[in-house]
């Protein structure tokens, strides 16, 4: 990959200008950005915020999270079980019994759905199992599940176990979509559609990622969903890397179902409670039919929290689900976990996904431009870059993340250098780093700083000289404007 073409406006001045015009610049103050303290050689250096480009793995903590959780703990301490039904004077959150409704209302705009189509509950994989229990109903003619060949392992495990649960053989029933070109990392929409065409007559379900976790590719959810429906196939989406990242429109695109976690771009904490979407046409409840012993709703694995709220504490044995996605709830959700989700969703509610997506496109494009054409003052590369970007260059085919594949043998040295310099990114062995500037809390200055540090890291790793924290100390001699800007 050539590095001879000059970058467009690749000096720090351009980054400063972009940050000055950023409509979301005040949102950084909503978050607690991790510092360099753990690896710092002195206290001044250690108190600097990291360049935290790892929100695709775990988002930083919103400042309001601790306040929200404190109010929850206060309600629990002072009201005990009565907190399920009574308001708490120190909080505008609803009683524990209704806090899941508040979370769903705030979540719906992030996925482009009606509130009734969203539930904040369980974890990603648990939700996938609950959804597949309803939507994967195989028979001898239609029994296959089409998934992406490099799906996140948990998705692969879930699909394989569902197939086995129905007494089918995964070797015959699981169709893996692999790239047309074995040397490529991404898959084209045309290829996805062709695989659906090939297996349509024997396929019971399709489950695909909205954004592929490894490459950062954003699949065409609208087109693929429409094509699946053309063949009469139910399709679901794993949106773990898409929610809070791209502008989703699940209702408009007529998606059947979707599930996601909330600890990545939604910044709700490690292992945060997840979410799911069920299209309104699948969530209808015919109460009269149910009371007469008929099937008045889509079959599911039932639990009392998914039952009609008016009857929930009557303790009867006739299950009538809440219409919509809430009817897929099983057990009493953690009000503490929901409170952490709500704290972050309140920040999203101060803007909209269109604005977030617009900044994200601009920031990722800037990152891509600088990576392909590193600032000349900091670049050691004249004709060849020791890395390549495997994420699609088309902005409509990616979210915030760029996946960068390093030349063999560089990953360990590069990661050590970056960590010593206070840069947090994600690695996928043997040779890929995932870099994800998030528009709510990252800056264009950070992008510029990252590329200057990253190219130095590549150079040091190539030379085999990365061996400890002295690199971080050496960086103190460089221009510190970037660090000052991000404090």
From TrEMBL:
EC number(s) reported in the record: 3.7.1.3
Residue numbers bearing the N6-(pyridoxal phosphate)lysine modification: 264
GO cellular component terms, A-Z: cytoplasm
Cellular localization per UniProt: Cytoplasm
Domain Aminotransferase class V: 103-281
Binding site for pyridoxal 5'-phosphate: 124-125, 152-155, 238, 241, 263, 304, 332
Biological or metabolic pathway of the protein: Cofactor biosynthesis; NAD(+) biosynthesis; quinolinate from L-kynurenine: step 2/3; Amino-acid degradation; L-kynurenine degradation; L-alanine and anthranilate from L-kynurenine: step 1/1
SUPFAM superfamilies found in the cross-reference section: PLP-dependent transferases (SSF53383)
Cofactors required: pyridoxal 5'-phosphate
Described function: Catalyzes the cleavage of L-kynurenine (L-Kyn) and L-3-hydroxykynurenine (L-3OHKyn) into anthranilic acid (AA) and 3-hydroxyanthranilic acid (3-OHAA), respectively.
Protein's name according to its UniProt entry: Kynureninase
Organism, as annotated: Letharia lupina
Lineage of producing organism: Eukaryota, Fungi, Dikarya, Ascomycota, Pezizomycotina
């Amino acid at each position: 990959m050539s590095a001879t073409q000059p970058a467009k406006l690749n000096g720090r001045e351009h980054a400063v200008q972009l940050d000055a015009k950023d409509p979301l610049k005040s949102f950084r103050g909503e978050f607690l950005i991790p510092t360099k303290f753990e690896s710092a050689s002195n206290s001044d250096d250690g108190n600097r915020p990291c360049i935290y480009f790892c929100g695709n793995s775990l988002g930083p903590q919103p400042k309001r999270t601790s306040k929200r959780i404190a109010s929850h703990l206060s309600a629990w301490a002072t009201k005990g079980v009565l907190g399920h039904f009574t308001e708490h004077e120190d909080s505008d959150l609803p009683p524990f019994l209704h806090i899941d409704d508040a979370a769903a209302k705030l979540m719906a705009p992030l996925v482009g759905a009606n509130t009734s189509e969203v539930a904040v509950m369980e974890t990603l994989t648990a939700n996938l199992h609950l959804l597949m229990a309803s939507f994967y109903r195989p028979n001898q003619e239609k029994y296959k599940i089409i998934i992406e060949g490099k799906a996140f392992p948990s998705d692969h495990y879930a699909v394989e176990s569902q197939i086995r649960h129905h007494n089918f053989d995964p070797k015959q029933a699981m169709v893996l979509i692999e790239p047309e070109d074995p040397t490529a990392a991404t898959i084209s929409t045309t290829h996805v559609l062709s695989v659906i065409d090939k297996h349509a007559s024997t396929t019971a379900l399709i489950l695909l990622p909205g954004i592929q976790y490894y490459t950062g590719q954003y699949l065409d959810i609208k087109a693929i969903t429409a094509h699946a429906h053309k063949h009469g196939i139910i399709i679901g989406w794993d949106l773990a890397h898409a929610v809070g990242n791209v502008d989703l429109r699940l209702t408009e695109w007529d998606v059947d179902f979707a599930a996601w976690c909330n600890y990545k771009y939604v910044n709700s904490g490690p292992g945060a409670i997840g979410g799911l979407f069920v299209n309104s046409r699948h969530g209808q409840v015919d109460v009269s039919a149910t009371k007469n012993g008929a099937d008045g709703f889509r079959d599911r694995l039932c639990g009392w929290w998914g039952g009609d709220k008016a009857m929930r504490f009557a303790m009867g044995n006739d299950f009538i689900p809440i219409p919509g996605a809430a009817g897929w709830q099983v057990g009493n959700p953690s009000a503490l976990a929901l409170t952490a989700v709500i704290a972050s969703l309140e920040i999203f509610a101060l803007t909209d996904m269109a604005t977030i997506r617009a900044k994200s496109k601009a920031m990722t494009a800037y990152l891509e431009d600088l990576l392909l054409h590193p600032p000349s003052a900091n670049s050691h590369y004249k004709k060849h870059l020791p890395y390549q970007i495997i994420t699609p260059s088309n902005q409509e085919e990616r979210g915030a993340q760029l996946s960068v594949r390093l030349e063999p043998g560089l990953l360990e040295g590069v990661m050590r250098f970056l960590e010593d310099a206070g840069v947090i990114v994600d690695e996928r062995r043997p040779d890929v780093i995932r870099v994800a500037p998030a528009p709510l809390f990252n800056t264009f200055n950070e992008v510029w700083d990252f590329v200057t540090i990253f190219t130095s890291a590549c150079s040091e790793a190539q030379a085999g000289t990365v061996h400890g924290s002295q690199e971080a100390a050496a960086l103190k001699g460089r221009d510190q404007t970037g660090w000052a800007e991000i404090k």
